[in-house]
Write a structure and sequence with these properties.
The complex is a heterodimer of chains A (88) and B (673). By secondary structure, chain A is mainly alpha-helical. Chain A has two helices and one strand, in the order H-H-E. The chains are: A mainly alpha (88), B alpha+beta (673). Chains A and B meet through helix 1, helix 2 and strand 1 of A and strand 3, strand 9, helix 10, helix 21 and strand 26 of B.
């Protein structure tokens, strides 16, 4: 009986450690789950922001807008003969 | 007492054991019931309590130009919705909402008084308005983000792109035709949630998101589209045309580079235009082509050996009658013309004579070979196939009329396919507008390749027809499309419009068209411009449509870096925004350029690109340019040898150039201040 007792205590300790480890991993897993949710939200927001900025950039660089601004600055499409060939 | 207790011990033990058995049995039977009989249902119920489905709405795919610039994209825009049953103090809250949204109080109170659980107050509001509404903290009023289609270039390519309705489904154009690719698939994702309703993503539940829509890349070049649209709009307005369209194509591949319609509409506010504005005339409208049909019939006649380019044909001084119809020419001095001259001066009588030399079935076969009467299948919505009467219905004068483009209807795309065949050496090619389709994960699921159908004319006939079309632009009816640096080949067309009720031609309604390609020998671009019922300037294709082709060709060749003689010699910096847009300074000081002292480099500092290149033209140098504005660096120093074949690097920057001398004086002046 006295020989079995230490083994029994060790077994209890191991089971307790395993139990704590299981609870810890489960809690970590849930915590990570929350983190993933938050990061997904951030990712989604950033993706939308990126898209909005891309669209804004496209709108700002649309040919009709550039043409209007260039016209005000005195730029025009070149007429024939205004394109200079240095040599051919 | 003790004795009695002892004698009943056995009895009590038995009783206790029975009780244990009964309760144990009950427990076991309940456990059995919970685990084995009700187990599955209860497990499901439990799972339902902490698991949920999150629905991810797919994002609609984007539409891009050939170089990856966004033409259509979806963004989430806030809207204000309400559960009227939840809103208390309706009068007070309606006033608050009216103040922050700008919507009338009466309209809001009407919504709040409805006995429903969901209503929109306004579907699209600005981000700031949404924030202001949220700040009010009115119970029952919520901000809902919904995808909205946005076309950042406004009217650019509107008729081809089409538009999307409020339910995120395409209603017109590419948006409608490729809706199943663009829309994507709605997908549910299983997640855990806690008591507060927050989602928890855990292993085993997967992270499969909704499949977003595919992205579609068109063959359209944004720059070319803009200039095509710009010049078409300008000329159509000047000519007071009822409608107009233009198609610009690469005749060697069939890729549609630009497609413009007039009048145009803004797809961001499509509901403000009547349905007539939405139509893509370039593919849906068929019309009697008039004289633009002549090169196709002449090519057929040359191929069949019916005529040769120098065959002389009697044009009867511009008037010819047969079987009750009279064919007229524009001029009455058209006597005996060669086939070359018939095309050059666009003689209807001469072309009628050529048409009559065909057997009916022969001409019918050739129309079919050119693609007339067949849907082009270019990937656009509503492609018409034109009208060619069945052979059995052809009258005796049918071949005569059809040879100069009457009694036959074609579409712009069909004419472009035929024109491209002439331009590229005789091979029919299928026009196309979808360059590629890429799924949400970046995988190319469709990629277009040029589709050559078959060679229909020999290269000898092709050269002969090209030459005739060159004569049209050089000396004939298409001179308004002539360029100095490039040789343009083309054909004008002025088709009469028939009254659909009587079938007779209106006396004063015309379709003015011009089709052309450039450069003449090795075409890079082919174009068709059609103006419907122009009423000012004139009604001839050569007068109202040829100038559009000229302006577009002139700028398009510059944008595509096609220079006279072949390759570009001026290597522009890719970051130079002005050159990217194909623009140059309007003021360049072109007239006072000093003559070069042979072999000795001049001082170019402070010159514009235009002025510097004009000076360098007189040397034989390989010039490399970077930047824009005024020259601040030249690699060959002034006064040194500028021998043949040397490379000179020129650097430009914005702002007026200051020489070291006047820079010092400017600094001094600033320091004094």
């Amino acid at each position: 009986m006295s020989k079995i007792k230490p083994y029994f205590i060790v077994l209890i300790i191991i089971l307790t450690i395993l139990g704590i480890f299981y609870v810890w991993t489960t809690m970590e897993s849930i915590k990570l789950g929350y983190d993933i949710t938050k990061l997904n939200d951030v990712k989604s927001k950033l993706e939308h922001k990126r898209k909005e900025l891309l669209i804004k950039k496209t709108a700002l660089s649309s040919p009709s807008r550039i043409y209007g601004i260039a016209g005000k600055m005195g730029f025009i499409y070149p007429e024939e003969g205004e394109i200079i060939m240095v040599h051919d | 007492m003790i004795r009695v207790w002892k004698t009943t011990l056995k009895l009590r033990m038995i009783f206790g054991f029975i009780l244990i058995l009964i309760f144990g049995g009950l427990l076991i039977s309940k456990a059995f019931d919970l685990q084995m009989i009700e187990g599955r249902r209860l497990r499901m119920l439990a799972r339902e309590q902490f698991r949920t489905n999150v629905y991810f709405t797919p994002e609609r795919g984007n539409i891009y130009s050939s170089n990856g610039s966004i033409l259509a994209a979806s963004v989430n825009v806030p809207g204000i919705a309400v559960d009227p049953l939840m809103v208390g103090h309706k009068l007070k809250n309606a006033e608050k909402l009216s103040k922050v949204t700008g919507i009338s109080y009466a309209k809001i109170i009407k919504i709040l008084n409805r006995r429903i659980q969901f209503a929109w107050i306004k579907r699209r509001v600005s981000g700031q308005t949404a924030k202001n509404v949220e700040k009010q903290g009115i119970a029952g009023v919520i901000i809902v983000k919904q995808p909205v289609r946005y076309y950042p270039n406004g009217t650019l390519l509107a008729h081809v792109l089409g538009f999307v309705g409020i339910d995120d489904n395409g209603l017109s154009g590419i948006e409608y035709k490729y809706n199943k690719f663009l829309k994507g698939n709605k997908r549910a994702l299983k997640v855990l949630h806690d008591g507060l309703g927050q989602y928890i993503f855990v292993r085993g539940f997967g992270l499969k998101k909704a499949t977003h829509g595919d992205n579609i890349y068109l063959t359209i070049n944004k720059q070319l589209q803009f200039i095509t649209q710009y010049y078409l709009d300008k000329e159509a307005k000047a000519a007071h045309s009822k409608g107009a369209f233009a198609i610009l194509m690469d005749p060697n591949t069939g890729a549609i580079l630009a497609m413009a319609d007039y009048p145009y509409f803004n797809p961001n506010r499509y509901w403000k235009y009547s349905a007539g504005y939405w139509r893509n005339r370039a593919v849906t409208d068929d019309f009697e082509p008039g004289s633009t049909m002549k090169p196709f019939v002449v090519a057929a006649a040359l191929s069949e050996g019916i005529v040769k380019p120098d065959t002389i044909i009697n044009c009867y001084h511009g008037t010819y009658s047969l079987d009750g119809i009279t064919v007229h020419d524009v001029e009455n001095w058209f006597g005996r013309f060669s086939v070359n001259q018939i095309v050059e001066y666009s003689s209807n009588v001469g072309e009628c004579q050529i048409g009559l030399k065909f057997k009916k079935s022969q001409l019918y076969k050739w129309f079919s070979l050119w693609g007339f009467g067949h849907t082009p299948h270019a990937g656009l919505l509503g492609e018409a196939k034109g009208i060619i009467k069945p052979l059995s219905e052809w009258s005796e004068v049918g071949p005569c009329e059809m040879a100069f483009g009457q009694g036959i209807s074609v579409t712009g795309l069909q004419e472009m396919a035929g024109l491209s065949a002439i331009a590229n050496g005789g091979r029919m090619i299928k026009p196309y507008i979808i360059k590629k389709i890429v799924n949400a994960y970046g995988k190319v699921i469709y990629k277009a390749k040029p589709k050559y159908l078959k060679r229909i004319i020999t290269s000898k006939v092709d050269k002969e027809v090209k030459y005739m079309m060159r004569l049209v632009v050089k000396d004939g009816t298409g001179q308004y499309s002539n360029l100095i640096d490039f040789k343009v080949s083309g054909k004008t067309g002025t088709g009469q419009i028939a009254d659909p009720k009587t079938g007779k031609y209106y006396k004063n309604r015309y379709t003015a068209s011009f089709m052309a390609f450039v450069p003449y020998r090795h075409p890079e671009l082919a174009m068709l411009v059609v103006q419907q019922e122009p009423s000012k300037i004139g009604y001839y294709g050569g007068a109202v449509s040829a100038p559009v082709v000229r302006s577009v060709f002139k700028n398009a060749l510059n944008i595509l870096n096609v220079y006279p003689g072949g390759n570009a010699y001026i290597k522009q910096s890719k970051t130079d925004a002005n050159f990217k847009a194909g623009l140059v300074a309007a003021t360049g000081g072109a007239d006072n350029t000093p003559a070069a002292v042979s072999g000795v480099m001049q001082d170019l500092k402070g010159d514009t690109i235009y002025k510097a290149l004009k000076v360098l033209k007189q040397y034989r140098l390989d010039v490399k340019v970077s930047g824009s504005g005024y020259l601040y660096y030249q690699s060959i120093k002034p006064g040194t040898d500028a021998g043949n074949g040397k490379v000179i690097v020129l650097k430009f920057r914005p702002g007026k150039y200051y020489s070291s001398a006047n820079l010092k004086s400017t600094k001094k002046a600033k320091s004094k201040k």
